[in-house]
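Appendix B, record 7
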Amino acid sequence: MNTGPTGSAVKAVRRSFASPLASVLVILLTVLWTVPTFGLFIASFRPSGASATSGWWTAFAHPQLTLSNYNTVLFHSANFGTSGGIMPFLVNSLAITIPATLFPLSIAAMAAYVLAWVKFRGSDALFFFIFALQVVPLQLALVPLLQLFSGGAHIGTIALIPALNVSGTYVSLWTAHTMFALPLAIYLLHNFIAQIPRDLIEAGLVDGASHFRVFRTIILPLATPALAAFAIFQFLWVWNDLLVGLTFAGGSQAVEPLTVRLSQMVGSFGGRWELLTAGAFIAIIVPLAVFFSLQRYFVRGLLAGSVKG
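C-alpha cells (predicted):
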C-alpha cells in the first residue's frame, strides 16, 4: 500500500474531485454543454417564419412546433435537387461507417495480439514504427491515396501496383478510413492486450491451443471493453468525417455520406435554419444511440489498467 508523498497526493486529488464544489461544477458544465444540443432540437421543430424572426428559446412562450421540417429534409427531393432528400445519404453513412469501424477493429486486434504475445525478430521495431505513423497528418496521405486508388503506383514506366479504379466507391472510403485508424487502434489495443496475465496465455498454449484459438477464446472476451471503447471512437470519427468523404467519394451521390450532403445544404440553403437544424439533429441521433448502447463498455475500457493489484 502506497503511503508516501505520491499516495497522499492521489488521495488529495480524489478528495478534491469528490467535494460538493466539484459536483456543482460538473453539473454546470454538463448543462452548458447540453444547452446548444437542446436548442438545436427545439429549433428543428419550429416553422420557417418563427426560425427566421426569433430565437429557439421563444418557443416556450409561443410554441409553434411542426414535424414538416423532418419530412422535408428526409423525403422531399424538390428542396435539395436529389431524389429521396437526405435519406439516401443517411444510408450511405451507415454503409460507410459500419464496415470502416469493423475492419480496423478486426485487423488491429489481431495485430496487437501478435505484437504483444508472438515475439519475432523486429517485432519491437515494427511496433514503434506503427506507433510513429500516428504523427503523419491525415491530409498528407489524401492525394497519394487518391492517386493509388485511381491510377495505381508507378516508378517511371514500371507499375508497382496496377490501377485499382476504386475511386468513388465504398471500397475507397473503407480502405482510407481503415488505414488512417490502424496506427492508433493497434497502439491502444496492444497496450491493453499486453496487460493480460501471461499465465492465461501460456496455459492455453500448453494445452495445445493455437495462437488463433487463444486469441479467439481468451483475448477477445477479455479485451471486449477496449474493443468497444475504440469502436465508439472510430464510429464517431467516421460518421462525423467530411474530408475523407469529400475526397474519396469522387462527387458520386451514390456513395456520399450524410456530412457531405449537410455541407451542401449549408451552401445552398443557408437561410433555411429549420431545415438545417432538422438535418443536423438527424445526423447526431445515430452516434448518440451507439454511444449510449455501448456506454458501459466504454467506461470499462477507459478504466482498464488504471488500477492494479
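Remarks on this record: The radius of gyration is 24 Å. The CA atoms of residues 77 and 83 lie 5 Å apart.
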